[in-house]
Write a structure and sequence with these properties.
The protein is an alpha+beta fold. The protein has one domain: Gcn5-related N-acetyltransferase (GNAT) (Aminopeptidase), CATH 3.40.630.30. It is 28% helix and 36% strand. The protein has a seven-stranded mixed β-sheet with strand order 1-2-3-4-5-7-6, sandwiched between helices. Strand 2 and strand 3 form a beta hairpin. The longest helix has 15 residues. It is globular. The N and C termini lie far apart (31 Å). The relative contact order is 0.15.
């Protein structure tokens, strides 16, 4: 059994930004690596949660979210490096985020995904997230964007 640790932070640091950027390069679903600008734009000016998953001390995954509106937490981005999949890290990160958001007084978590990410969609559906909106892509069904929400 591997030693798994989830670490939570609410503020970005230069070191954390560098770690997240490097990890994002190891996640094939992220078609472009994170940038410091994107992280700061999304997370720096509002209440946010930055979760990192570590396996045997090595950074293996992350889940990022922030306050979207009063009572609503937006789960923006996450992923697990290919070498660390099938260890339950995505589920652990999701559960941690839900518990944290609930303790902070949020009533709903919202998230967006696409048909092209069936593992993420399955994870969300398994955890009682409901599809609230579909943004169809007329060119390709795998690019349909799904909005989901869960009351917590």
């Amino acid at each position: 059994m591997y030693s798994v640790e989830i670490k939570a932070q609410t503020e970005l640091s230069a070191d954390l930004i560098a770690q997240l950027i490097e990890l994002s390069k190891q996640i094939p679903e992220l078609d472009r690596p994170l940038t410091a600008e994107a992280l700061e734009q999304r997370l720096a000016a509002k209440p946010s949660l930055i979760l990192t998953a570590h396996v045997e001390g090595e950074l293996a995954g992350f889940k990022l979210g922030y306050e979207q509106a009063d009572g609503v937490f937006y789960s923006w981005l996450g992923g697990v490096a290919s070498d660390f999949r099938r260890l339950g890290l995505a589920q652990s990160l999701l559960e941690y985020q839900e518990t944290w958001a609930n303790r902070q007084g949020y009533k709903h978590i919202q998230v967006k995904t696409m048909n092209r990410f069936p593992a993420m969609l399955n994870l969300l559906i398994t955890n009682q997230y409901l599809i609230t909106e579909l943004q169809a892509d007329p060119q390709n069904q795998v690019d349909h964007k799904l909005h989901l929400s869960k009351a917590i």
